[in-house]
Automatic annotation (TrEMBL), chain B:
Name of the protein described by the UniProt record: ER lumen protein-retaining receptor
Compartments reported by the entry: Endoplasmic reticulum membrane
Membrane topology recorded in Swiss-Prot or TrEMBL: Multi-pass membrane protein
Organism expressing this protein natively: Trichoplax adhaerens (Trichoplax reptans)
Taxonomic placement: Eukaryota, Metazoa, Placozoa, Uniplacotomia, Trichoplacea
Keyword Protein transport in annotation: yes
Major localization class: endoplasmic reticulum
Length: 10, 212
């Protein structure tokens, strides 16, 4: 499942 | 946050600090590619614009600010304060090409056609190849100081650890960002030759010299 709500990584 | 990402971030942080210490202590940036550092600064700048729009955590914000500030400090040291020691004539990789290709790819392959999303995607693609001028410089001179090789080892390990983090997140959280994952695999792959030399030479106390 694709999930890209926010970029929480650095 | 999982252990792979935490160690990855710490490795990234260590790389940046090692580089700053190397330049500051030796009062010299010899052996360091100013072009790679310019690319990393562009990467951080494009990616961390979301500092103003998207709060994740105190940790996230602090790290972003540190990465931005340290990359600009590195650029300042290389191109201004210690510019006499910068090996301009060995730093000849055509890095404009990397930027052009990353821009085109980011416009074509992204999650959403919006300014912030395209900048984020561009930063991911550019980061994957930003080390090439540095690796090219080492190939050209045939050697690297051991502190420079420690820097590269920490910097290369960081994205490799992120791959483990993505595998973990896929299984545990159902989270998968294939743009980051594929770029991260490319990025880590570029370090393969270097990792081999680092483990077989530098870890045994020898200098990093390339086989003739």
């Amino acid at each position: 499942k694709y999930c890209n709500k926010k970029h929480d990584e650095l | 946050m999982n252990v792979f990402r935490l160690i990855g971030d710490m490795s990234h942080l260590a790389a940046i600090i090692i580089l700053l210490i190397k330049i500051w202590r030796s009062r010299s940036c010899s052996g360091i590619s100013g072009k790679s550092q310019l690319l990393f600064t562009a990467v951080f700048t494009c990616r961390y614009l979301d500092l103003f729009t998207n709060f994740v955590s105190i940790y996230n914000t602090t790290m972003k600010i540190f990465f931005l500030a340290s990359s600009y400090a590195t650029i300042y040291l290389i191109f201004m304060k210690f510019k006499a020691t910068y090996n301009r004539n060995h730093d000849t990789f055509r890095f404009e090409l990397l930027i052009v290709v990353s821009v085109i790819l980011a416009l074509l392959i992204n999650h959403e056609f919006s300014a912030t999303e395209i900048l984020w995607t561009f930063s991911i693609y550019l980061e994957a190849v930003a080390i090439l001028p540095q690796l090219f410089m080492i190939t050209k001179t045939g050697e690297a100081e051991s502190i420079t090789s420690h820097y590269l080892f920490a910097l290369g390990s960081y994205r490799g650890l992120y791959i483990l983090n993505w595998i973990y997140r896929y299984y545990v959280e159902g989270h998968l960002d294939w743009i980051a994952v594929l770029s991260g695999i490319v990025q880590t792959g570029l370090y393969c030759d270097f990792f081999y030399l680092y483990i077989t030479r530098v870890m045994k106390g020898k200098n990093l010299t390339l086989p003739a």
